[in-house]
């Protein structure tokens, strides 16, 4: 494993006269000893201490377990510091609490490589999960994904090293369940149950496995119902989704497909009830509100239909279908100011769309007002008026194109020097990110599952991973 800490290692040779035994360990003069130095510091008699030598060995043990003298250095460390594993584990936990993650990583790796066992493997994995959480708080998505991947790979590599270890299988099954990787979760939980000893933990994970299998089966039913909807076989979709809802009454997905199917079958009142059930269960997305808008319209409540569409557009401001529907309703109700506003927004998205052109002609026929040329957004750099028209959004360099000027976001990224810095490496613009933030490591959940016994207890009765709670086990 490559690491910059290895660059700080210098090597010294001992004279044969210094060969001696420490207990059963023989110090050899033919093996060079590593010394940990800082930066370009030179080796001197003053900095060649036992502490510096052990520090050098521990760095190699952490980051280069394939070193040709790994076994010798490991035995050396145990000879001079017999209780080093417990001390290193305690120090690792302390450094993690202090958010000194690079140093904590070295210490956890030392523990794992000095005394390889499933418990130290699990603790190392949980540490990487904690580091991933820290990256998330720091809005470092690459780091978040990188260390979460290391957490999983640590467990997978541990499984290769220790075989079908029930504790590692339990961790892999539980972690994949928490992350929503249900196929992987089912595989590891099944393997765990095949080797696990009887007890409370096995009973909990057996229930977790049943829940995962139920969810997988439910996902299949959802897919089947959706496929029937795409084939316009609403009756078959309803038959499948009713079975799903009977087993999963608190999952909004089933109620949405039911409402969608009922709406297409012109049963608008029952469809509305199913769609409102989605909102009661805590789900709110543009598709739900669009379907509710259609139901309200067919049930004779046009104002409510427009209100639902307003909410949908707020959630997805670039959705041409939603904007067009809202423009059409206002145009039908002869609310011309509102109709023109939404038609103009639709034009910016799809100026050649046939429906948009039709609404423009209808608007003109009803009001006598023609639409002007499509307005392009301009970037003004304190120019004279005669030069303003020469500079539009399209003139920006492709590497620095700014897209943060929509209706809801005022852009302040152009300073007095008229240079856009919102896409520099250090200043990435996130003002239009999709809402896809991972919440598996919330601020309230700090990982404290590394106890002195090296056991991870991060999965409770409810099958939710709580390995980031503030109260340390």
Can you walk me through this structure?
There is one protein chain. The protein is mainly α and 473 residues long. It has a domain at 4-162. Helices cover 56% and strands 3% of the residues. The chain has a two-stranded antiparallel ribbon. Strand 5 (423-424) and strand 6 (427-428) form a beta hairpin. Helix 10 packs antiparallel against helix 11. It is elongated, with a radius of gyration of 32 Å. The chain starts with 8 loop residues before the first strand and ends in a 45-residue tail after the last strand. The model is unreliable at 377-473 (pLDDT under 50).
Multimeric status of the protein: single chain
Bin the helical content.
55-70%
Instruction: Give, in spatial order, the strands making up the sheet with the most strands.
Output: 1-4
Q: Supply Rg.
A: 32 Å
- Percent of residues in beta strands: under 5%
Mean pLDDT across all residues, rounded?
80
Shape: elongated
Structural class: mainly alpha
What's the number of helices?
18
> Which consecutive residue ranges, at least 5 long each, have pLDDT under 50?
377-473
């Amino acid at each position: 494993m490559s690491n910059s800490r290895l660059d700080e290692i210098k090597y010294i040779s001992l004279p044969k006269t210094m060969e001696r035994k420490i207990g059963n360990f023989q110090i050899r003069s033919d093996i060079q000893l590593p010394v940990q130095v800082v930066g370009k510091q030179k080796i001197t008699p003053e900095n060649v201490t036992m502490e510096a030598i052990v520090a050098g060995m521990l760095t190699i043990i952490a980051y280069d377990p394939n070193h040709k003298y790994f076994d010798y250095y490991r035995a050396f460390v145990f000879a001079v510091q017999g209780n080093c594993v417990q001390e290193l584990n305690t120090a690792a936990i302390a450094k993690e609490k202090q958010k000194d993650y690079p140093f904590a990583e070295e210490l956890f790796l030392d523990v794992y490589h000095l005394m390889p066992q499933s418990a130290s493997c699990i603790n190392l994995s949980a540490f990487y999960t904690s580091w991933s959480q820290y990256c998330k708080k720091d809005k470092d998505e690459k780091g978040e994904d990188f260390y979460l991947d290391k957490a999983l790979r640590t467990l997978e590599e541990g499984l290769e090293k220790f075989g079908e270890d029930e504790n590692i299988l339990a961790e892999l099954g539980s972690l994949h369940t928490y992350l929503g990787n249900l196929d992987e979760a089912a595989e590891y939980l099944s393997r765990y149950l095949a080797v696990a000893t009887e007890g409370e933990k096995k009973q909990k994970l057996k229930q977790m496995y049943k829940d995962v299998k139920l969810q997988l089966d439910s996902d299949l039913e959802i897919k089947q119902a959706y496929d029937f909807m795409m084939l316009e076989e609403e009756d078959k979709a309803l038959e499948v989704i009713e079975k799903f809802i009977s087993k999963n009454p608190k999952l909004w997905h089933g109620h949405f497909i039911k409402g969608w199917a009922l709406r297409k079958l012109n049963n608008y009142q029952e469809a509305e009830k199913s769609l409102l059930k989605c909102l009661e269960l805590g789900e709110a997305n543009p598709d739900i509100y669009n379907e509710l808008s259609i139901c309200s319209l067919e049930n004779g409540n046009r104002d409510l239909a427009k209100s639902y569409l307003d909410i949908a557009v707020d959630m997805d401001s670039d959705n041409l279908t939603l904007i067009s529907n809202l423009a059409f309703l206002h145009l039908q109700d002869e609310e011309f100011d509102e109709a023109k506003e939404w038609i103009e927004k639709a034009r910016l998205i799809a100026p050649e769309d046939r429906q948009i052109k039709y609404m423009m002609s209808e608007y003109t026929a009803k009001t006598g007002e023609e639409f002007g040329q499509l307005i392009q957004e301009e970037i003004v750099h304190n120019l004279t008026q005669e030069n303003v028209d020469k500079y539009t959004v399209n003139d920006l360099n492709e590497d620095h194109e700014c897209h943060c000027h929509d209706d809801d976001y005022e852009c302040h990224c152009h300073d007095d020097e008229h240079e856009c810095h919102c896409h520099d490496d250090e200043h990435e613009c996130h003002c239009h990110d999709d809402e896809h933030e991972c919440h598996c490591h919330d601020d309230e959940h700090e990982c404290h599952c590394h106890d002195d016994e090296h056991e991870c207890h991060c999965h409770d009765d409810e099958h939710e991973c709580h390995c980031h709670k503030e109260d340390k086990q």
